[in-house]
Task: structure prediction
Amino acid sequence: MKKTAFIAFAALFMFTAVFAQENETKKWTNNAGPGLSVPFSKYDADGGKIDQTGIAVSLMYLGMHQNGFTVKATVNTGISLTNSIAFAGDDGIRVGSFAAIELGAGYSFIRNEKFTLSVLGMLGLEAARYESEAKSYKHEELGAVDRRMSATIAAFTVGADITASLYIKPHFGFFGSLSARYMPLSAFVSSLSYVKDDFTRTENYTKAGHGIFSLTPAAGVIWRW
Result:
């Protein structure tokens, strides 16, 4: 999941860099940098509400035309925490992996040497995966096996983003953003894996649903060129 997210961001960054170079006469400004994000998500899945909170490394690209037209690409990858998913009665806070990628466009209402403020519409995908430890289990067909459980939540997201950048030097500064998303389509996939010697049986159960909302504040450093 992390490898896919970083490859996607690299491809997007290369595309926007080439685009900016071809439009140099139009005074296209590039901004990019790393940061930290804290995604909050709520889903309606698996017959109930699922709340999760993430802590992720964020990579952001912001391209700004002299007329104010602005594009943005972000990648978040890290961990996700929830107490809404239980594996065979094993309650408590569960730690999983998290990744999200988003693309969007909008307008920068303030853009000068010291400060920029942009409002954008965004589309994206996010996913979180949780796994249990392998435990001994007596299967009715296979007999004594090691059983592992997992749950994956994925969603298509659409919403708005506000990004502000403050530059303390001509090419360096700090950024902060707040993203609000609605998730019109989501999927909850639960899996059971049974391992006996060299044999593995996996059973997958998929339920379609929808997310309720996703809210992601982020902050970091930014370079401008």
Remarks:
- Residues 155 and 186 are 4 Å apart (CA to CA).
- The first strand starts at residue 29 and ends at 37.
- The longest helix spans residues 2-22.
- DSSP finds one helix and ten strands in the chain.
